[in-house]
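Predicting holo structure, NAP bound.
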Amino acid sequence: MDPRTVLITGCSSGIGLALAVKLAQDEQQRFKVIATMRNLAKREALEEAAGDALNRSLEIKELDVRSEQSIRDCVDSIPERHIDILINNAGVGLIGPIECQSIEDMQGVFETNFYGVVRMIKEVLPDMKRRRSGHILVMSSVMGLQGIVFNDIYAASKFAIEGFCESLMVQALMFDIHLTLIEPGPVVTEFEMKVYEDAIRGDYSKADPETADLFTHYYLRNSKAIFSSLGQTPDEIAEHTLRVLTMETPPFRHQTNQVYTPLTALKYADPSGHLVNDVFYKIVFQHDTLMQASLRAIKLLRWKVQKVQQGAKNLGFL
Ligand SMILES: NC(=O)c1ccc[n+]([C@@H]2O[C@H](COP(=O)([O-])OP(=O)(O)OC[C@H]3O[C@@H](n4cnc5c(N)ncnc54)[C@H](OP(=O)(O)O)[C@@H]3O)[C@@H](O)[C@H]2O)c1
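Done. Tokens:
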């Protein structure tokens, strides 16, 4: 079978980079990857990671999801504009008290995380409909299912794209097009570093002292602990995505981190919202010591599991 053409956005780092490399280096050569990034000056890391696959099964092109022209130019440069799989990965974060964020900053998040995906889908959907085949994936987040304190705008952008995809899904089915939302929990990438560094430099004078203190002391410290104990690697997300891509009937939603599944299910257990709000309030503000201890225990357990898996691999069992 001919390899399937996959276009991925945001491949200069993190999940996009890992995914582009994983698909391009597929032993069964099932994919031809068009790895895109908005700034080609950042291509070096991808070129290095791609190794032999570069310019064979992986091609790098420029694409900025905030520009319709940039998207059109990139898609037009692909023979017959033929894209079998579109992976909307590009995304930006924003954390902090909303009193301290400008409307322009908030709109910027939606321009990339929501309208960026909408622009991409608008560009490739008509071709996929004509061919009556295709698979569109969106790198959403567990924050597309459950809001998290001080991530108000980022979560809203992911909720928005989830609602968009839920609505489009039924129409896509009519044309044999698959649509999948990948929903990772925390992933250790530059994403976390970028938002964290912005947050450290932030000016919180527009927030009242109590809110500023909750964010800078409570939230930032806990967020660091959560990433270091529950965070997955970009490669793990790439592995999950590969699995989804090769399924005969891909799921509409796929969560990559099982620890988060019960938390995202709470709101459905009690439609009034009391249960989920109560649980999050207590976890964040009342049982801080217990949460820190649990995170440390999880980190230790994951480290042990990784050691056992590595040992089994070395002995040839995996
Ligand atoms: N890290 C997490 O904890 C986590 C968890 C759940 C979901 N996600 C989602 O996973 C996706 C990838 O994030 P990541 O963790 O891999 O972060 P990352 O390392 O910061 O990668 C984000 C990528 O998006 C690109 N990008 C930003 N704006 C763009 C634009 N206008 N046009 C094209 N590309 C653009 C960035 O390019 P530049 O280098 O040019 O900025 C970068 O290549 C995002 O959608 C994010 O929301 C991340």
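The mean pLDDT is 92.
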